[in-house]
Amino acid sequence: MRFQSGPVAGLAILAAAICARGAEPAPMPVDPDIVKMVASISVERIQRSIFVLASFKTRHTLSDPLPSGDGIGGASAWIRAEFERASKAAGGRLQVDLDTFRQPARAPLFPQAADVTNVVATLPGSGRRIFVITAHYDSRARDILDAQSPAPGADENASGVAAVLEAARALAPYDFNATLVFLVATGGEQGGIGAAHWADQARQQHLDLNGVIDFDAVGNPRGAAGSRDLWLFAQGVPPRAERSAGLEGLIEAGGENDTPPRSFARAVRSAGLLYVPGSDIRIVYRAAGYRGQPGHLPFLERGYPAVGFTEASGGAIRPDDTPDFVDFAYVADAARAGSAALAALARAPSPPREVGFAPAPAGMGSVVRWSPRTGNPPTAAGYRIVWRESTAPYWEHALDVPGDARSAAVPGAFPDETIFGVEASDGAGHFSPAAFAKPAPGR
Question: Which of the listed CATH numbers 3.30.43.20, 3.40.630.10, 3.40.630.30, 3.40.50.1370 matches domain 32-347?
Fold first, then answer.
């Protein structure tokens, strides 16, 4: 990216700075459709879903596979029926499938080969982009190899499945500029084998997977001294052996806190707070807590932006994990926040590309430039420059500019202490994750 210099460019930048100095971003408009989606999420249905799932003797991945049984097979059959019921209520708009595959033995968590099943509901949208909302539906006793003892798993993770089911029910009647996948995965307690299988298939098919939201134990905040925060785990540098040139360049430019997962997390949090104003979503800067493996980790390991909602207490495996200890209203808030974020991002344009910044002349601040992204509708109707101090966790300031703009001055924001990003907007209140701005060459 080339930044203009010289007297003419300097005058243009100064004029833009004078115009922008008093400018404030427009209040964030709300999408009435998303307001309806959020309002449709039912605490009563969530409670019913958790009670039904916890009524199976165990949902251990290697438990009874029969659809009529009281193990994993019965649970998957019930989840499939719930997706089909949601599809029927929305006029058949969801495509419901069983993703069954042969999982080889993998010591120590999966001691024998077996056929295992993910349950998948897909809401087709326009364009190539795909977003996933997911949870694992298996449960476990204290002994992870015990496939026979009771393991109700109400919080871990019937609560997450209930949130995904509610998201599917709420979003299925509406149209989006991206395809939405509601993935209820198996083997979460065995290293995320179901999510890993689906993510591998996505890579093999070259799917344009733009983001993943996982729910893992979102039902019991009582272990955190009464806090009703929702934690949103967001890894900085994806845990991969091989990293793309783009990621390496971002890290070299000081963007280790603005990698795609972190940028995606900020966008999820922003939409969640907009549509669920009573919630308190806190981004936690790691992939998961110390006591477990998150359901979104297989996606992170394959290079996809993925984040995970969990309860403020961090979740725990215990034999008394029954619905008696689940806060159903808290689960509903998690479902509302995740659903709102998924809907808003699926209606937003893709982020711009080639985003960079340079000092403005005469110490006026900075100039941010970008290029539009083409070939993946919808086209951006506008852009929002966002910035924060380098030590701040969330965006602190914003400046809206029209869709034909390719640069803007940001007065008073000095390059050495500021992180910049640019979001794309459709003009109706849907914003993409921010694309990190790199320093211009020669800095």
Answer: 3.40.630.10
